[in-house]
Amino acid sequence: MFGINFNGKHSYNNFGITLAPGKTIGIPSKNKIFVTVPFSNQKYDFSELYGDQTYTERTLTYSFNIKDQSKKHMTTKKTEIINWLMNSNGKQKLYDDTIPGYYFLAEVEDESAFNENWEDGILTVNFEAYPFMIAEYPEGHDIWNEINFDLDAFQPVEFEVNGPTDVTLLNVGTPDITPIITASDDMVVEMNGVIFNVPTGESKSKDFVLKSGENSLHIDGNGSISFLFYKELI
Questions:
Q1: How does pLDDT run across 58-92, given as a tens digit for each residue?
Q2: Distance (Å, rounded) from C-alpha 129 to C-alpha 57?
Q3: Which value, to the nearest 10 degrees, does the dihedral of the CA atoms of residues 80, 136, 185, 205 take?
Q4: Distance CA 132, CA 58 (A)
Q5: Per its UniProt entry, which superkingdom is the organism in (predicted)?
Q6: Which of 10, 49, 128, 153 is the most exposed place for a label (fewest CB within 10 A)?
Q7: Is 10 helix (H, G, I), strand (E, B) or coil?
Q8: What does the pLDDT read at residue 45?
Q9: What phi and psi, each to the nearest 5 degrees, are found at residue 89?
């Protein structure tokens, strides 16, 4: 049975409840910042002035069929379910069985609704989620059964460097991504005319971001270097 996995439990496997019609996977909106020139018909878009385009959070709506032996048991089941969903302490991973290979970061923030008959009812819950769904496996993985030929890219993310080396990393997602870099020795990486000194071991810099699309890197050093990142899609 299709359902959701959230806060360590699955809606059907752990609670025996099914999804009712009415599921909605909201699409985030762009945060646009326009400035209109006085006495002119022109306006300028400053939405990407400090980096990439930002987006609003997205709303995920799920409705669950709540049914049990009696009204008392049904009410108990409803209480159990809503406490499971509400008690997340911030955004947690939400897996939707119909969207394999990805998860949302979500939290129930708004009021939930329960429409009941005598011994059954429908519980509707709204999650507020991070704008993008996140791939469960990192870029460059070789798990054949998890490869989506429409959305994934076959690419190496680990390289042996012996002197100046040019490589390309593909960010097939929508937003900028900051990878975790692991190097066996100190190296110098140049990207878009900016030089980054990469130390030995694991490092991450908010200034080193992979733009959506192709990213050309010029690496100088000796040893191995790898880039760990996960694609994010709307």
A1: 999 999 999 876 888 888 888 999 999 999 889 99
A2: 6
A3: -70
A4: 8
A5: Bacteria
A6: 49
A7: strand
A8: 65
A9: 50, 60
What domains can you pick out in the chain, each with its CATH number? 4-135 (2.40.30.200), 155-233 (2.60.120.260)
The structure tokens 């994010």 sit at: 232
CB 60 within 8 A of CB 74: no
Q: Which amino acid is at 230?
A: Y
Contacts of 128 (CB under 8 A, 6+ apart): 57, 58, 59, 106, 107, 108, 109, 110
Q: Are 51 and 176 in contact (CB under 8 A)?
A: yes
Whether 163 contacts 220, CB under 8 Å:
yes
**Global pTM value:** 0.85
Three-state DSSP state, 72 = helix
The encoded tokens of residue 20 equal 């009712």
Question: What are the tens digits of pLDDT across the range 94-128?
Answer: 999 999 999 999 999 877 888 877 678 899 999 99
Token readout for 85 is: 């969903």
List the Cα angle 62/63/68 in 5-degree steps. Answer: 140
Beta-bridged to residue 115, according to DSSP, are: 122
Q: What are the b/e assignments for 32-53, b being 16+ CB within 10 Å? A: eeeeeeeeeeeeeeeeeeeeee
